[in-house]
Design goal:
Length: 349
């Protein structure tokens, strides 16, 4: 069908965002120019934040980080990528003569940067972030994971997924706090969310996608929403996007001009009351008793403090898929063009 010949264009699907109102705060950000529902500043009414989060599964805290804090995160990102905070697996320390831009262009994402950097670790305790977390999770909050996206131009995004598929909590309390280190736009690969998709409380089936727009992580399938019902969460640097562990979200490739980045630091938090069944079980250990203790308490009390804490995770470099996915998912994870290329080569006489 050619829509150009129709008198009325096809109707856009109705927005899934439910505006729950309330005092959204005093705006200091300049972008996006029109504040959509769900964008709050640190002086917003906590009840309004909570209502929007519970209904839609995400919200934006504008100006959570000051410009000086963002500059410090940028400097630290460069030092980590150069290997100045410890050599990263499979990434030798950069030569002192190599320009920063050349070093940064190698990276999509580094997992657990807080394990090698005091600056990244301090960001986990950012006061406006922790205040917002206690509003949506409860008084007792712990952090178990950090991811530092560099996402230089040309790097892929992540296909639809739910974070509780990877970091399971017992009480569905997982929250990602996605700190924009650069302004995030549809051009440079901002986060996209499916508003309200957390409410079903279902972890959808995951499959390998083979799609070059995305990295080596699988995609969720079979959910009752369409891509055109999702919304981009465009934010100014310093904003923090909070999203529920059951919320379907994805990001697209960075298509901004070469030499630019879409840096973001994503920290994951949950309630202290929940055990954290995450990581490898020891022999004879039962999953029901398992509680991963490499966590940082950021607010309130930890009822399991008597178990003590561990220090197990180490920084690692997330594969972008551009060199294949063998290191992450095994040899079977091939992109469609790799499969087609192999088929063409074997068909040659
Ligand atoms: O920042 C991105 O591109 C994706 C982040 C994401 O999917 C996540 O933090 O779970």
């Amino acid at each position: 069908m050619n829509y150009a010949t129709l008198e009325t264009p096809p109707a856009a699907p109705p927005s899934l965002v439910i505006d729950t109102g309330g005092f959204a705060g005093t705006r200091q950000s300049t972008f996006p120019r029109v504040r959509p529902p769900g964008y709050f500043s640190p002086d917003a009414d906590p009840a309004a934040i909570k209502a929007f989060y519970q209904t839609n599964g995400y919200f934006v805290l504008e100006n959570g980080f000051t410009p000086a804090e963002i500059e410090a995160l940028k400097r630290e990102t460069t030092l980590i990528c150069r290997g100045d905070r410890g050599e990263l697996p499979d990434h030798p320390k950069a030569d002192a003569a190599e320009p920063d831009a050349s070093v940064l262009s190698r990276f999509l994402c580094i997992h657990f940067p807080h394990k090698c950097s005091d600056v990244m670790r301090a960001a986990i305790h950012n006061v406006p972030t922790v205040r917002a977390l206690t509003t949506i999770i409860g008084p007792n909050v712990k952090c178990m994971q950090s991811m530092l996206f560099i996402k230089s131009s040309g790097k892929p995004g992540q296909a639809w997924h739910q974070d509780e598929d990877y970091i399971a909590t017992r009480d569905r309390s997982l929250v990602g706090a996605w700190i924009a280190v650069d302004r995030a736009t549809t051009e440079n690969g901002c986060l996209w969310v499916m508003p309200g998709s957390h409410r079903a409380g279902i972890l959808w089936e995951q499959q390998w996608h083979g799609d070059r727009r995305f990295d080596c992580a699988s995609q969720s399938v079979g959910f009752p929403y369409t891509d055109d019902q999702s919304i981009p969460v465009e934010v100014e640097a310093g904003s923090v996007v909070f999203f529920n562990g059951y919320l379907l979200h994805r990001s697209m490739p960075n298509q901004a001009p070469a030499g630019t980045y879409r840096r973001s630091l994503v920290n994951h938090y949950m309630s202290c009351e929940s055990h954290l069944p995450w990581g490898k079980l020891a022999e004879n250990e039962h999953i029901a008793h398992f509680d991963f203790r490499d966590v940082i308490i950021v607010a309130g009390q930890d009822p399991y403090a008597w178990k003590g804490y561990s220090d197990l995770n180490r920084p690692s470099v997330r594969p972008s898929g551009q060199g294949g996915c063998a290191k992450w998912g095994g040899e079977s994870l091939k992109y469609k063009d790799e499969v087609a290329g192999a088929a063409a080569a074997s068909a040659k006489p």
